[in-house]
Amino acid sequence: MAASSSRVMLGPLVAAIDQGTSSTRFLVFNAKTAELLSHHQVEINQSFPKEGWVEEDPKEILQSVYECMERTCEKLTQLNVDISNIKAIGVTNQRETTLVWDKETGEPLYNAIVWLDLRTQSTVERLINKTPGRNKNHLKTGLPISTYFSAVKLRWLMDNVDEVAEAVLTHRAMFGTVDSWLIWCLTGGKSGGVHCTDVTNASRTMLFNIHTLDWDPELCKYFDIPMEILPKVRSSSEIYGLMKSGCLSGIPISGCLGDQSAALVGQMCFQEGQTACLLKVVLIYLFNCYLLQPVMSEHGLLTTVAYKLGRDKPACYALEGSVAIAGAVVRWLKDNLGIIQTSTELEKLAASVGTSYGCYFVPAFSGLYAPYWEPSARGIICGLTQFTNKSHLAFAALEAVCFQTREILDAMNQDSGIPLTQLQVDGGMTSNRLLMQLQADILCIPVVKPSMPETTALGAAMAAGAAEGVSVWSLRPEDLSEVTSEKFEPQINPEGKGHVNANQMGWRITAECSGSHAG
After folding, report:
1. 291 within 8 A of 317, measured Cβ to Cβ
2. Which of 164, 203, 268, 443 sits in a 20 to 30 Å window from 349, CA-based?
3. Range in 64-68, 210-214, 278-282, 369-373 the model is least confident about
4. Where do the H-state alpha helices sit in 203-288?
5. What is the pLDDT of residues 72-95, one digit of tens each?
6. With contact defined as beta carbons under 8 Å apart, do 423 and 446 qualify?
7. What predicted TM-score, i.e. pTM, was given to this entire model?
8. Bridge partners of 42?
């Protein structure tokens, strides 16, 4: 009795599984204040069996989720927080990463093929060659035909992995992105697990009709993929099933969003034209929200489902720009070149010179994504002189992130016809203050960074807590907690603006060369 009477009473709590490319986290929030109470993180191993191949172990991913849950619950208990107050769990995940498993044994039939894997490049080229005018956007899914998306990865698995082909033929195969795998396993697996996904993850497969919000029979036929292996498409906020094991057994899983859509919700981008930039460990995403109607890009962007916050709620759409390598540049400089030991050291190195001294860095390690969509492009560092040192290269690496963001922002402004007045940012790289200021200077608009950095997990928690049957988190504008933020204003004069534009053009020419050289 003494122990229970000392427990901290906080009202309803909502948890989020944040399963990313490099790590898994489990976070618990106060549903009334959006305060983060506790969390735990586990790194995920990647394997690279061949050049351009990137894989992860589905069992390791699942085990990391259970470990993060258990450790977080232990931390809450140590804080005298009653874990029975956790009323719902949301899932947010790395998108496009592709898995196939056996529904009878519950065993994965191959490693997860990660979104930035390039093994399907020849398949993509063959598909593009079959389209009229070699048009990458022929399928009208809002996505170009690219190695990035799940359909070609699934096709490769069916063509090259005997266990997958046999399971498809014998009706034992289940396909899903990471969210589907986790929800199926957590809700019972082979003993009645729920095989589902949400509209945001489904819209990244090249098999999904963004107008009907369901799998498209013609697209499935085009890729020769049987529809019976696909998960059921649900909204981003509804009860999918209950946890069947672990310390949170019996708690509903009631929110599901691809990680970038979750960050949109977490940053409360519920108004048309609001834009969020997500500077993740591996990838830059830039979203511009368009409510209710999808807008097709004419400038190399993706049209995607932003979220659908309830079974009876309308879907909201977004234009998205994706760049394959952002924060991974830091890891490359550390692990491959050895010029820094930590990510914080990069900021210090770059700040020590304050310029790249004419050095341009195009980190096309996995090809170029938006707005080029050139998978054969390769990285370039140019403009080197005898004077160039590692500090200049560090500054060029930060500039590369900013120039890529501006490329996407320029395309968005052209597609929307409405110049953006500020950029909201999120993700691990936002801790680099030099990068934030450099981004504001290169974009010539303010960059706004929320003081609470966990907006991706927060968005998944919000969707879960707002679901019908849970209803502990209100998404009405008047009820949303005000998010405190820090604003980085451009610190550049008119003469400097011309210099920035010239540097941007230099970077763009270098990027275009990286694609043409590879070709």
Report:
1. yes
2. 443
3. 278-282
4. 217-223, 259-266
5. 999 999 999 999 999 999 999 999
6. yes
7. 0.84
8. 24
What angle do the packed helices 121-130 and 150-160 form, to 10 degrees? Answer: 110
Closest CA to 237 of 175, 320, 313: 313
SS3 (DSSP) at 275: strand
What is the helix, strand, coil percentage profile of the chain, to 5? 35, 25, 40
Q: Where does 22-71 show beta strands of DSSP type E?
A: 23-30, 36-43, 55-56
Q: Tokens at residue 466, please?
A: 């707002």
Judge residue 60's burial from the number of C-beta atoms within 10 Å of its C-beta, 0-12 exposed, 13-18 middle, 19 or more buried.
middle
Asked if 426 and 263 touch (Cβ cutoff 8 Å), the reply is yes
Residue 424 · residue 448 · CB < 8 Å? yes
The SS3 of residue 430 is helix
Rounded to whole angstroms, how far apart are CA atoms 163 and 154?
Answer: 13
CA-to-CA distance for 99 and 101, rounded, in angstroms?
7
Strands 13-19 and 86-93: parallel
Each residue of 150-184: pLDDT tens digit?
A: 999 999 999 999 999 999 999 999 999 999 999 99
Three-state SS sequence of 377-401: CCCEEECCCCCCCHHHHHHHHHHHH
Rounded Cα distance, 519 and 516, in Å: 5
Find where tokens 């210090």 sit: 348
Beta-carbon contacts of 254 under 8 Å, excluding residues fewer than 6 positions away, are: 88, 89, 90, 237, 238, 239, 240, 463, 464, 465, 467, 469, 470
